[in-house]
User: Fold dCMP deaminase family protein from Paenibacillus urinalis.
Amino acid sequence: MCADIRKDWDTYFMDIAYMVSTRSRCPRRHVGAVLVQGKKLLGTAYNGAPMGVPDCSEAGCMISEEYELTNQDGKEVMVKKQRCVRTIHAEQNLLLFTDRADREGSSVYVTDEPCWTCANMLANSGITEIVFHRPYPKDTSKVRQMMEHKGITFRSLSGYEPPRETLMTVSD
Assistant:
């Protein structure tokens, strides 16, 4: 008899998020997101330029620099952040192309921990859980604090291994 080996649901949905991320043409980071209610997949999205607009691989990245005063180990530290403003994030595209009714009580699986802007949008979207794989340390502490305040489950998949064909070098 052959053993029936199945992936657990977290692995299954995160694998799909990574496969979706392969559609991205961003040279800095491929991000995929999926909307799930129970065990039903309701939508997918990836990061990229708006439809019909040249993307970063065609027109170059539009990098914006910003500085933020943060508290690290009891000391105030100025942190420099670089963000591409040409790209719509995967989480934002997911919210643009799914219905509010489908998001109520749903989970979002995303390859990368959401940035502050995406976390704000997700917090107001009706979802009850965010599951991510790769950390985004620039916004982690304030995003975690907000999710806790909102009662949204926010968890990282430790030990998860993405499908080999979806991997790329990620730059900050």
User: Anything to note?
Assistant: The chain has six helices and seven strands.
